[in-house]
DNA sequence: GCGTTTTATGCAGAAATCTGCATGAAATTG
DNA sequence: CAATTTCATGCAGATTTCTGCATAAAACGC
């Protein structure tokens, strides 16, 4: 990994999370903390960020900030962290959109080599920031509010892909009602993904567990792994566990 | 292997992967690292890429990463303003990516009803903000630095569309050399667009008029309308005008 | 065609850069 | 204040780069 590359990644992380830890970065890209520290020092000297004891901070603290208000960001970050663990080098990964998926995209370790296939424009853009990830965009009509592509073409293309892993951003999940959503076309796409992927991972903040929307994507049994920000043995998740779903 | 050939290949690799290693390139085309280094130095001096210790990086690291400040934004705004005039209700409009196109996207009047087809993720996101525009995304592999989709699938899809209007963001244009660019795959996409659209509109800041890159998209005669920020009767544009191209 | 000039390429040795480690100093925490 | 963590510095090994030079190829003038 080149020096500039490393620094670009660090900068990206800083601007994203407003904070980075030397220790964390060191581990993430497999270089010594000394190197990280030198990188931080350099970036700070160029005024790109602020160096502090133990890591670095975004300039926005110091200057004018634009607070990115993602709902329940901490929970989603926890979920994304768990999800990243499932991805191995060489995998084909299929993903929907949504803020949880976006967190996942941001937490992918830079040395990971994999192919990400997605219908989500924001997710695709985020994946593109990673040096070793190949990104495939599924095209079709763009659903304006969710910024994902939907329609027959998209569905046909998804069917052509046998993904190793499929991450679904969940809108509502319930033991009886299954996985549900509220946009007809989005549901069609999710349905196809669930049907074709080898392993389906649902990512869902606990707040949405045991809720339901009007349109059904699939049964809970069709999901292989459920990730929430809660402890796997949490009471709220027992019903899903006993349905044979692996909880993370 | 000729020098120009080598450099074109290097540029292609850089634009594709965002990164090249001197050692890798040297081995790949069987020349010494010295030669590669000299090539990189040359390309960097021309501003086509960024040279760093151990290899080279795409310009996007240096520029597009954090800097929101679009180069020559005022010129591009003028160009976009002229371009908007060409679009009528009900049209199918095909567009590439690039900052000029993005300006166009932002200036579309809200009451315009049209279908926009694009390979550019940022452009698609921008189009999606408009209430009456239907957006079709062409899918395929994502070219990381240009954030547009490229490849056989994308080209095949473009061929299926008979667009009324095609807006091309121009990298370099010259009476002799025609419309040229520097990324092999991007060129393939642009070529297809020019070939299939009913009317081709090239958008180009005057700075890029009478410059050329290595890879040809099409002849100037293949363009129907050329838009720059200059007055249509400007001297610099006369050669194009006399080739039968309409100047705006 | 032939000699000259220019250009391109590879090589060798010196210089510069990058990175990890060790040491002691400084900062942080409880 | 003591323990822990983080930092700065210098240094060493590895890699990369630079420089000048030799050779070969191409372009040019005549």
From TrEMBL, chains A, B:
Pfam families for this protein:
DeoRC (PF00455), HTH_DeoR (PF08220)
Q: Which SUPFAM superfamilies match?
A: NagB/RpiA/CoA transferase-like, Winged helix' DNA-binding domain
- Which InterPro entries does the UniProt record give? Carb_Metab_HTH_regulators, DeoR-like_C, DeoR_HTH, NagB/RpiA_transferase-like, Tscrpt_reg_HTH_DeoR_CS, WH-like_DNA-bd_sf, WH_DNA-bd_sf
- Keyword check for DNA damage, yes or no: no
**All copies of domain HTH deoR-type, residue ranges:** 3-58
- UniProt keyword terms in alphabetical order: DNA-binding, Repressor, Transcription, Transcription regulation
Q: PANTHER family recorded for this chain?
A: GLYCEROL-3-PHOSPHATE REGULON REPRESSOR (PTHR30363:SF4), HTH-TYPE TRANSCRIPTIONAL REGULATOR SRLR-RELATED (PTHR30363)
The protein's name: DeoR/GlpR transcriptional regulator
Report the source organism: Chitinophaga fulva
